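User: Show me a protein chain along with its predicted structure.
Assistant: Here is one chain, sequence first, then structure tokens.
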Amino acid sequence: MSAENDVLVLGGAGVDTVVHVPELPLPFADSYLIRPGITTRAGQTGDFLALGLHALGLRVHHLDLLGDDPEGTLVRALHAEHGIPLTAIPQPAGTKRAVNLVDPLGRRLSLYDDTRAAPEDRLPEPVVRELARASRHTHVSISHPCAFALPLLREVGVTLSTDLHDWDGVNPYHEPFAHAADVVFVSAARLTDPEAVLRRVAERGRASVLVATAGADGAHLLADGELHHIPTVTPPAPVVDSNGAGDAFAAAFLFAWLAGEPALRAAHFGAVAGAHACTVPATTHAPITREQLLERAGDDRTGTTARGHEKEE
């Protein structure tokens, strides 16, 4: 029997307030006049991944804790607008939120509100089990409640992926996610030796595919013990914002990987999607479509979905 969903996305729902600043780091001053201004919109890592996968034609379900607040309303509305199923567990502390400072080069500094979480936060085990069993794959955000779901997900037997974001390779908080996943994504921004970190995770965990994205330097792919360099792809338009590029990379990689593509091919798909994301302002939601991805990746299989079947008209 086929699964109801292609990907279950755990965690990473929230709201960002995007503030455009003249430069980063921002020099101290009493005040600044900024354009194009300040925008608050739904969309954090789990939301962006769900949107990216959905735009590529995958069946996605998103599960996270949300508050009964204006931010939670924005997140619910975003999913409803795009037709992405969302299971929202009540969060008394409120919906996660952050402020993103974005400079003219598209670089980002994120300030996360750490008050909208509590040590006792959990995703209900029966809900996690039911949704995981109904899915081909689960992507796990590195938020606190998701860590407690990892043993259950491994028990269910679904394949897992995770994004460690700007991990330094040392912080023990990230290790349960890194060691439980079959596919690991991480930013190389704080890694002095990306290859060493990838190989250490592979040795201690179960991942056979690991990717360290490196922005303008491309990405490092460790697959079946062999390290590859993934070159960057020329963006189709001027770069305006790097926000969401890592999530776009992961979505396109998983799209190809779930279709049975080799890791090198999947990483190229990721590079194409990441380049596209850098051309999209942080205040909008415009992930790369399946047709755009296949065309720009040099793939003429436009009748194929990530499930390996012919597209239904």
